[in-house]
Amino acid sequence: MNARVHQPVHSNQHAASYYAASANRSVAYAPLGGELRADVCIVGGGFSGLNTAIELAQKGLSVVVLEAHKMGWGASGRNGGQLIRGVGHDVDQFKSVVGEEGVRDFKLMGIEAVDIVRKRVEQFNIACDLTWGYCDLANKPRDLAGFAEDAEELKSLGYQHELRLLQPNQMREVVGSDRYVGGLIDMGSGHLHPLNLALGEAAAAESLGVQLFEDSAVTRIEYGSQVKVHTASGVVLANNLVLACNAYLGELNTNLGGKVLPAGSYIIATEPLSEEQAKAIIPQNMALCDQRVALDYYRLSADRRLLFGGACHYSGRDPADIAGYMRPKMLEVFPHLRDTKVEYQWGGMIGIGANRLPQIGRLKGQNNVFYAQAYSGHGVNATHLAGKLLGEAIAGQASNGFDLFAKVPHITFPGGKYLRSPLLAMGMLWHRMKEVL
Q: I need a surface site. Which of 85, 358, 371, 379 has the fewest CB within 10 A?
């Protein structure tokens, strides 16, 4: 299949993805050396860390970002590139914690999160192939009924973008497959090149005076009224600390680490399709996603490759042959692509929380330590919202959104470091079995 082999997760270079091959800028930042002082030290150079840095720098604070690998190395630079409204899954479940008004605010922030990305791209003129148009795909009639309810609720929230329900006989308008029984078009969501967005945001942060360091894994943190963040070759002394590592937090903070489960997600990219082929499979160049637990998500790249993603592994080990694993899934949706070559295959870790709501707050007992993690596969927009909320909270500005997220309790996954993944895998298997009942 001529698929290019992805790099192991411990590599300090970007995964050998289509995104890395088509990155439109090359940036390199030196490792941290010596001692620095700053108002805020941020650990993690992905969307959460970079956007928090931008927000803080715009408020006049001095910021240092420490990234263990390269800017955008983790999920921020590897994901499916789908920019979809909403934060969390079924936020109505938190009514007893935040009240009806709080639930409504969560839903409004899910809309605002996409707009933050839109404005970031516009303000800093970031070339990241931002394209509007998304369609939720119904696998079963009950999914379509749920879409109708979603559309009515969005309208009640004042959603300004076009929403349109599709019946079974209209599905060929958006996807060249007979697999689905309906859909919901949303022209306020869309897709983009995530690594180019992350690299553009790193450049934006640097232009605002943020100090960025790569190959600077944090080895130790000393907490206190002033935090000391140690790397192999330097230390940062800061008044505030932000932990923005998500699925790659590891053992850096075991309290937070126990509340987020790393799960592998995988993507393949085909060779470039002809204009006719591309129009046949995704006629309106939308991002698309189905409703199953082990969902499929896919879209076209700017050079007309099909980027097809999905799966969810909890073992911490990538499949030996990602293309061999994902290609059959692609062919179930688009069997007429059987002669199409897969040219790229890669994977990465997403962070999943037990209740599927992003975890944004202060570390218990440490008022100057903040965190954001556990976006559960919907991080492109939610990370940007997290950056805004963290920026407000650290700068001492009133932030109702930050307070709402901080109110929601998050359980630690049972089983400890070695058993939590198998236990969750068993739970996900149960949900998949329910899909076929």
A: 85
